[in-house]
Design goal:
Elements: H1 7-15, H2 18-46, H3 55-80, H4 85-108, H5 114-137, H6 147-176, H7 180-201, H8 220-225, H9 227-240, H10 242-271, H11 279-308, H12 313-331, H13 338-366, H14 369-397, H15 405-428, H16 442-450
Length: 451
């Protein structure tokens, strides 16, 4: 039985399953590569001394790199429900490594044109597909009673691994300097790490991660022809699962507000809190904000399994959204300094990760395995569309300085409205009993976790 009490205790519990350990190692390696890639691309696009970033620039970058994947997300979901997910993890890691090496070559040439954004789009699209596969695979390696714990450990450790990858990127830049050669070096290191993730995924049994199919997997052409029909069925599946539908709506609202905050914070550090010409100081300051968010993620991992052992996950989501809203409103009474931004990043990180852990678990519990890949692709699509929509709105609403009392008040109100709605609907008409994975019997789930 799970041992309550701490993140370390939770980690020990889930690591007792050798199959989970293999999936966990793959995630850590892959997300370390993601962290290094993010630092390299952010430095190259937003923190070049010769160009000042505006909200419109940020919105354009997010739209170009995230929105197109939202259009192909349904195809990804169908493939996740037909292709061996272990094979997806291997091939996607190798493809990411190859594409990141192409980006490294473009950065070395100091090229930031349409081709650069196109390759960046492919990298992020493959990565979102990869993360969807990880989420869909998790119920195959842990018993249902440990799903919240496993999500907490996996997502939080993955975030920490991303931060370590980012720290590695900063270390490489410190050694090689702040030019394009240093950024290209970071990308090469990221590509090598992705290759390591592919090797780790290859250690797993071919059929370990599902999907659970009644017959042989269809050919690719047949699967793609069935996209429209399959997504319509997936949409009906979500609509029939009240807990999943509500949870996805709540996290969509969170992503809208969080996207606005992200754009404003990036501009605040790029153009206001530091000399616009001192990009190294701006990057270092923004890294501190990312670190504070990471600390919030870790606190969420400590708190969420314990809280949800005594209260409904929907109650914890409502509480976290309310905390995020009150955090923003409190900023109105405080001076806009780095300390206040870092403090708010800590609390928003706590809220963001706690909400995600709960929503991941509620969706995994509510949907059947044969639909799980499609549902998690829809989940990722909601993430991207909401974030890009927030960035597009930020182009008009956020000043280049990143500082706006009206915006801060709006962010606080948005979070509180989301908390009020979700709390009302889940209190008035509570979700079904939580903790049971749809489509997986308790005995089968227990066997998967024990073997």
């Amino acid at each position: 039985m799970p041992r309550p009490g701490s993140f370390v205790g939770d980690l020990v519990d889930v690591l007792e399953g050798p199959r989970f350990r293999k999936l966990y190692a793959t995630r850590l390696c892959a997300q370390a590569a993601d962290g290094a890639t993010t630092v390299a691309l952010t430095s190259f696009v937003f923190f070049s001394p010769e160009r000042q970033a505006t909200a419109g620039d940020v919105a354009t970058a997010f739209a170009v790199t995230l929105l197109p994947y939202s259009l192909v997300g349904p195809f990804a979901g169908v493939l996740l429900d037909r292709w061996r997910r272990r094979q997806i993890l291997v091939v996607a890691s190798l493809l990411k490594a190859l594409l990141v090496l192409v980006l490294a070559a473009l950065v070395a040439l100091d090229y930031a044109g349409a081709g650069f954004y196109a390759v960046g789009l492919l990298v992020l699209s493959v990565n979102r597909f990869y993360l969807s596969a990880l989420s869909a695979a998790l119920p195959h390696v842990v018993p249902g009673r440990e799903l919240v714990m496993a999500n907490s450990v996996s997502t939080t450790s993955g975030t920490v691994s991303s931060l370590l990858g980012a720290a590695l990127a900063f270390a490489i830049r410190a050694v090689l300097g702040d030019g394009t050669a240093a950024t290209a070096g970071v990308l090469v290191a990221s590509a090598l790490t992705s290759t390591g993730a592919a090797a780790l995924a290859a250690r797993m049994e071919r059929d370990l991660l599902g999907p659970d199919l009644d017959g042989p997997a269809p050919h690719l052409q047949e699967a793609l022809h069935g996209v429209a029909r399959g997504m319509a069925e997936g949409g009906r599946h979500i609509r029939e699962r009240t807990a999943a539908r509500r949870a996805l709506t709540a996290i969509a609202a969170h992503r809208l507000v969080y996207g606005l905050w992200t754009v404003a914070t990036l501009l605040l550090y790029r153009n206001t809190l530091h000399d616009p010409g001192d990009t190294d100081a701006a990057i270092a300051g923004l890294a501190t904000v990312v670190g504070a968010s990471g600390a919030g993620y870790f606190l969420a991992a400590l708190a969420t399994p314990e809280v949800t052992a005594h209260a409904r996950k929907s109650t914890w989501v409502t509480t976290l959204l309310a905390v995020a809203g009150l955090t923003q409103l409190t900023l109105l009474a405080l001076p806009m300094r780095e300390g206040t931004v870092i403090g708010s990043a800590l609390l928003l990180g706590l809220a963001a990760q706690g909400v995600k852990i709960c929503v991941d678990s509620m969706v995994q519990e509510a949907v059947s395995d044969e639909f799980r890949g499609r549902v998690f692709s829809v989940y990722d699509t909601v993430f991207n569309v909401c974030f890009v929509s927030a960035a597009a709105f930020a182009a008009a609403a956020v000043p280049t300085s990143g500082r706006s009392a009206l915006l801060t008040a709006g962010l606080g109100a948005g979070y509180l409205l989301a908390a009020g709605w979700y709390g009302a609907v889940t209190t008035r008409r509570p979700d079904p009993v939580e903790g049971r994975i749809a489509g997986v019997s308790p005995a089968a789930a227990a066997a998967r976790g024990a073997t």
